[in-house]
Amino acid sequence: MSRTLRLIEKVEGEVSLSYRVENGRLRAVSTSFFSSRGIEKILRNREAMDALVINPRVCGICGHAHLMATVRALESAMGNPKLTAKAEALRELTLTLEMIQNHFKWFFLTIAPLLGMKSPIQAAIEPSRTAASMIAVVAGQYPHNSYAIPGGVVCEPTIREKSILLYSLEKLIGYFTRYIVDTDFRSIEECEKIENILRMDGYLPQAMRLIMERGWERLGRSRDRFIVFGENGIFRQGKSMATRYYPSLRPDYIEESFVPESGANSVRYRGRHYETGPLARAMVAKRPLIREAHRRYGDSLLSRIMARVCEIASLLHYCRELIAGIDLSQESYIEPGEFPQSGVGWGVVEAARGSLIHRVEIEEGLIADYSIITPTQWNLVASDAEEGILHGALEGESADAPIELIFKSFDVCSVCTTH
Amino acid sequence: MEEKRDRKIQIVVGALKLFAEKGYYRSTIPDIAGSLGMSSGNLYNYFHSKEELAQEAIRYISSYLAIRIREVNESKKSSREKIEDIVRIYFETARDEPQMIDFFLRVYLSNREVFSDGCEGMVCVNEFITEIMIFFEEGVANEELRNQDFFTAFGLFMGYLGGMVFLYGERMLPKALESYIEDISENIYRALGV
Amino acid sequence: MAEKKLLLWLSQLACNANAHSLLNHPSLEEFQKSFDWLYHPLLPSLSSLDEILDNYEEMECDILLIDGALCAGLSKKGVRMRDMLEHFAKSCSHILTVGTCATYGGIFSAGGEDRSGLHFDGEKRLDGFSDFFEKSISLPGCPVHPEIVVSVITALAQGGSLPLDSYRRPKEYYGYTVHDGCSRNEYFEYKIDRHDFGHLEGCMFYEHGCRGTYSAGSCNMILWNGVSSKTRVGEPCHGCTEADFPTRGLWRTEKHMGIPARLPLGVSKRAYLSLAGVAKAFRIDRFHRRILEDEE
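Output (structure tokens, whole complex):
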């Protein structure tokens, strides 16, 4: 039986999806990527600090998460030097802003056209441009800065930067109300009833209604296993099998293995594949609205879309707290001392698409080995198709189903995967 | 302008000779004017004070050495050969124009208060220092000299030469100054080379 | 503009930051109304990449934008990217290499043997696409500033003249150095060689590897995201617009006996050291105090 080959594009690059159709159902689903850029090889034998400049260039939309994973990996190899609360808050803030621009772009540039929504281009551009300029006011530019270095951050924001942040955030919140859901953004976090959202104005309720009208709300269900490595003011580490939650994970239980037909590495935790990303974060952190969506629709495309878009509200709230908490009089940077001649470090962050993990090994003062595990690897690449997450979402699905929408509900990043 | 400049240089050259004979502090403006066959009043047309004259003198010496070292820097020689050339320039100056090195060591380096207003830091010997820096920088860039702090290298090089010239001036060296050039150059190269 | 020019954005080995950066242009919505995209990896386009891969031989564009390092072995759906680039290069009126990777090879060229920019591999001129050299314009930067892309496309559409340098970079943007307009310039001018991370004060040229004085770019003249720049916040310029990006030791200044190994663009060693010697002779108290310190 012949295989169908589809180019899935506008997923930060492209992915090739292939499957067989048997009796109208998808079988033997697999993905493959067109190239690998060899970042890990490029890093080898370089000075450790160079990774701070190279690694953001892994990805044009989540490069800042790669910077944060890098600086944490380097700091971990150095024995975790002390940071001031101000430096920590600034790092959290710019990382969170990057996630916000990601989510807006994904919803309005990737998902909206698939649902035939007529949202204006401004819905993607205005918030992402505002979030980018907020990152730049702290970090110099966006995309591609390296303002977080072992010991803190390079900048010294003043009242100018703080007030730009303050008012720009209000603008972002305004965009959320205008384009996502026409309600106080805080009420989304507390909302427990899907009907309440459906009754509101905005492109999120519209998208949900469109999905339901077409009967797609339960499509794209997969293994119902979630994993979250990063932990901060709003995310909790742990894994969740359906609704059972297990705290505390160990990065050394992660196994990576190259999948030749895919051209990328698959990732497992103690032998099993897990879904990572906003749905996983909402399940592990037990966010009421998303747990309700999960109870009704399972780990479906609708739950994924709701989790990602509603996460913006939590992220905005987190930004507000972070900005308010910044004490400008604190130091930005504390000299962390010399790099060790040898050592191993892990850097774990929650990026827009899920858990991002960096591991660095330093020998004789240089990078001897560097490995990067990206969220899309968790969700898309499987060493065992019987177990893979995307595979679970598509395997056995009707050939008439919205395959591209199911695929893109994972918010795939091809360039990250082909680092 | 050109004429005034030449006349100033003549005064500096004459003053350096007098300073070497009588000492800087014991030489007065009338002494200097007298040694040049000019009136004190006329000399004041060129320099308003002895300090100003002293500052011009150190700039003159710095420039005198810099022009010669620049020729070395612009040659295609190895760092080892350049060291020898610079040592030779320094020693020949000490032999042929002893008043210059004497002024540099005994007046400039020993009486910083004279130079505090107008010759801050190394600004009046800038031309000379610049050439030494270029010599060092190129030596490191060509991987002939070991990379290190500028002052550790500069102190070794110039301190050594200054010490030898001081011994020479005090007539404590048993042999002619030039006869030491080769060994000293070798020592400096061994200390600074890779 | 009588009719809308047709733009085509083709990504090679790219991270997509040039594409995302374009979205940060303050007048993107208005720009979008003046041009059509045959394809852009993020923005609404007339065709899908899939359609282009299937039918590219029957398609044309006015301005071809190439993003990412070229890779001899790169194919998508069995179509060699090189063949596709050549096809569009022949018929288009202008080619823009968007970003450092497409211009010089950039970071990713170190990941394999068969990778380079369109016309350059680092500083080395390549022959492969030399027939199109005269219609090419280089817009390096990692990423390139969105304003550069937008104004160059606009200028080309309007048919104005665009002075270029030997790398075919528009001089309006690359005739300056990143140093021009840096808020830390006084510390450079007066040779205050101390810089501590996390402080508003100090110049990063002396210790922390700032390449701003010899990197072509306008980062401090056309601010990033309209608000700031790397050097303004206190991150050294890493020279991301240059043919040798990324060099090694990006956070420290290479020095020979204490003298910076690389000096400001076009300034001779003798000129630099003479000026530095004079500046260093004077201690100017203002530059040794914190800017935000309360005064008596």
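DSSP finds 16 helices and 13 strands in chain A.
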